[in-house]
Structures are given as structure tokens and as C-alpha cells.
Amino acid sequence: MRKYFRYFKYCGVASIILFFFIVGIGIYYNPAFSFFKNAFSDLGSYYANFPTIFNVGLFFVAILMFLFSIYMMEISGNKMQTIAGAYISIASIFISLIGLYNENTKPHDFIALYFFIQYFLGIITYGLGNWKNKVKLSISLLLFGGFILVFFIPWPSLAMAESYAILLILTFTILVWKTER
């Protein structure tokens, strides 16, 4: 099993590609969805056409994200990097919970927000775990700072804010993918 860990590094980018693929399918079946008015979670609400596509798709995104977190913990060089992988593994649980507790349920807002908070805690912890590598530390700090900006920019829609945060996560996964062994 250990020999397959090296392939898990691709799962971070694959999870984001899969996410945007299921969003695309969801938008195809929900032509009323507007990137400028809605949140991605609207594609999984009771009012959406075929919400199961989005909600079940999030479970598969979570699996890929979890495999990526295992890779991060496997290649970690210190405790901080291991903790970063653990934070991202917890984030993967929360993204699966978004699919379980869709927009029409009470815990949805907390779960969706906590997914992003948890993932970005993983990013900042990864950066701090790489304090000797100024490039990784700087990029991680910039990505975390970029996440903090989400709360201060008046986004026209949640989908735009979510896309911005997901692009920051994509940048991080590419950083790990390209710089780790």
C-alpha cells in the first residue's frame, strides 16, 4: 500500500477538478443558477433539479481530498506539516458533510464555513511547518491572507467568494504537488 502514496499527491488537484466538473453538471441541469447570484450549495438544495449529483459528487471530492491529506502526512518532515495534513483531512470530512446537510438544513452554513476555515488552517500550518523554506512559507502566508480577504470583499454572490477561496486552495495543492517529493 505504501508504494501507492506517491500517487495521492495528484488527488488534491483532482478533487478541485472534480468539484468544478460536478458544479458544471449541476449548472447544466439548473439553468436558473447564476454565478453572480447564487452559492454553489444551491445546486444541492431541495429546490434544485437533480441535487443528488452535487451532493453525492461532494462525497467523491472528499475522498480525493482525504487521500491528498494522507499524502501530506506521509511526506511531512515535522510535526507541523503532519498537523497541516490532519487539518486538511478534517476539512475533507466537512466537505462530505456539505453534501449530507444541504442548504436546506440548519447546520449547513456552519459546515460550509468550517470547511474553508479548516482547510486554510491546514495551509497556514503547512507554511509554518516550512519556516526554513521562505518560498513555501511566503506562499502559504499569502494564501491565508487571501482567505481572510474573503470576509472583507463585498462579493455579489457566494459562488464568487467560494470560487476565489477554491482557487486559493488549488494554488496550495499545486504548491504541494510540485515542491514535495
How would you describe this structure to a colleague?
With 181 residues, the protein is mostly helical. Helices cover 70% and strands 0% of the residues.
Helix content: 55-70%
The backbone outline, from C-alpha atoms, is globular
What is the terminal separation in angstroms? 17 Å
Low-confidence stretches: none
The class by helix and strand makeup works out as: mainly alpha
* Oligomeric composition of the shown chains: single chain
What count of helical segments does DSSP give? 6
| Radius of gyration computed on alpha carbons | 16 Å
Series of H and E elements: HHHHHH
The proportion of residues in beta strands is under 5%
The major pleated sheet works out as:
none
What's the total number of strands? 0
Question: What is the residue-averaged pLDDT?
Answer: 94
What can be said about this structure in brief?
With 181 residues, the protein is mostly helical. It is built from six helices and no strands.
Question: Which key phrases capture this entry?
Answer:
181 residues, mainly alpha, 6 helices, 70% helix
Reconstruct the topology from this structure.
Layout: H1 11-29, H2 51-75, H3 79-100, H4 108-129, H5 134-149, H6 158-179
Helix pairs in contact: 1-2, 2-3, 3-4, 4-5, 5-6
